[in-house]
User: Fold this.
Amino acid sequence: MIKTTVLRQGDKPTKEQIQRIEKAAKKPVASDIDSPVYTSKQLAHLYLESKKLHKKQTVGIRLNQKTIEQYRGFGKGYTGIMAAVLDYAISNPKILRKAL
Assistant:
């Protein structure tokens, strides 16, 4: 039987909850038949593929001065914010249509 409890930020677990956690920590971890065991070679391949998915490229883009100043106002990391805005816009057709 699985029992879950949700704690809000700042809440402390009760003594009963702590006892349940300690009891669960002593139990062995059961393997999941739906999760295959990967070889070292397969894990290395998965790692390399995941790096390809998250690889970023540097591009040149022409922006007006006002836009650059607004983004720079966010401080350090503003280019990451620009990238996040572009990612959001490209995945939301309504926003993209407004920009065209």
Summary: The chain has a mean pLDDT of 88. The CA atoms of residues 33 and 56 lie 36 Å apart. DSSP finds five helices and no strands in the chain. The helical segments are 15-26, 40-53, 65-72, 78-90, 93-99.
